[in-house]
Structure formats: structure tokens, C-alpha cells
Amino acid sequence: MKYITLFVATIFLSGCFIFGEPTEFDETTGQSPEWIYEKAQSFINQRDIRKSIEFLEKLIKRYPDNKLIPSARLNLAYSYHKFGQTELSTSTVQQFITLYPSHPLMDYAYYLKGLNLYNERGILNKLTFQDISDRDVNQLKKAFDAFEEVTKRFPNSKYAQDSIDRMTYLMNKIAEYDLHVARYYMKRRAYIAALNRAKNVYTSYPDSIHVRESLVIQYIAYKELKLKDLEMATKKVIDYNFPDEKITANYADENKKWWEFWKSLTD
User: Fold this and answer.
1) DSSP string for 217-245
2) What is the pLDDT along the chain (267 residues), one digit of tens a residue?
3) 51, HSE (Cβ side, Cα atoms, 13 Å)
4) Where are the beta strands (DSSP E) in 94-250?
5) What is the pTM assigned to this prediction?
């Protein structure tokens, strides 16, 4: 009896070896694209983002030419975004923008692209600018451009006002970074480099709250470089736009202290 039991067990194990390991059950097998899409949508509504990603990826791979695929791609981009996979979300939504330029949800596509770039790597959550690079700022500029696309192409979109608010914040944040670099150069008496950064603030972001300081940096830099004509021209701009900013003959010496604070951050 013992030998019979061993023989049966051997046959069973051999069968397992022949037919391979059991595969995981896939409930989408044999289902229509409509069924898979609706199930994915229900997972999104239930906030089961992992499952929505799984179903949408299978739908797109299995039925690439189905009429539901454009919406499936956008939903997948949204799911990646909610799951914290911002790079995958950005690439997916960019693919959607490229493939379906006339889609009725194009306003949301650009808005989602902006959100991904806005949140990428937690740039905006950093307490100082010490660890922010020009590459980081370029990402913020791309986010600004995406939100701007929403406001220009879809001014009546429900995402337009939030896009404007985010653009304003990004504009001031990018300008603030340029000022940070300008102060760094001023402290080291690299006045030409400081001028270039300061000029970028008021030429690229004329509505920024940092325009005033950028002009003051420009004025002091020209004074230090002994470029009298440019110094006086900048003074006229400051006097006209900011009449409460009193520019005196000793202004540069009196206000050098405003970059002293940055020594602790840059040395």
C-alpha cells in the first residue's frame, strides 16, 4: 500500500512538472473591451488605483484599436498620477496629446501634464534653494508652459482658473530662484552674471512680485561696474515704477547688507 501511495504521488508531481506552475487567475480573460474599461473605471471610483492600472494596461495592450483606447490612455495617465508614478503619467499623457490632438478632454490632458511636472521630485517642498538645480527649474518652467496651454487654448475650461493660480505661483517661484542666484553672484562681485539673472526676472516674468528687487540688483551692479548711463537709466525705471523706493547717491553702499544673509547659505 505504501508503494502504491508513493507511485501515485510520483505521477502527480511529474504531472506538475510537465504542465508547469499554475498561472494566476486573470479575470479579464475572454472579456470584452467594454467590460474591462468599466471595471477599471469602477476601481478608480473605489480608489483601488493599483487594480485600475492593471486593467487599463491590459485593455490597451489587448485592444489597441478599440474606440475606448483614447479614454483608457487618459485614465491610465490619471491612475499613474494618483499612484505616484509621475514620470509614467507624464509620458502617457504626452502620448495621448500627440495621438489625439482633437480629443474633447485635451484641456484635462494638459492640466494633468502640468500637475505631474509641478509635483515631480517634490521640488516645491524644499525649504531653501540650496538643492534646487537649473534642471529642477526647467521642470517648473515646463509645468508653467503646460498650465499656460490650458489657459490659452481652453479659457472656459473648469481647469483654467486653477491653472492660472498655479502659473502665478510657479512664476514667482522661478523668479525667486533667479534672484537667489543673482544674490550669490553679487556677493562674489560677479556683477555681469548677476545682471543676467536679474534681467531674466523682469524680462521673462514681468508680473512677478520679484521685479522690484531684480531692478535694484541691476542698479547696484551697474553702479559697481561704473556704467553710469545704464545705472541712471535703471534708476529712472525704478523711480517710475516704484516711487517709494528712494534711490540715493549712497544707495548701493547702504543696501549691500541685503545679501549678507546669503553668506550662510552659499559659503
Assistant:
1) HHHHHHHHTT-HHHHHHHHHHHHHH-TTS
2) 555 454 445 544 445 544 455 567 788 898 999 999 999 999 999 999 999 999 999 999 999 999 999 999 999 999 999 999 999 999 999 999 999 999 999 999 999 999 999 886 555 555 355 455 566 788 889 999 999 999 999 999 999 999 999 999 999 988 988 998 999 999 999 999 999 999 999 899 999 999 999 999 999 999 999 999 999 999 999 999 988 876 655 555 555 554 444 443 334
3) 16
4) none
5) 0.75
Closest CA to 189 of 235, 225, 219: 225
To which residue does cell 517648473 refer? 140
Cell (9 digits) for 23: 498561472
- Separation CA 259–CA 267 (nearest Å): 12
Strands, E assignment, 114-238: none
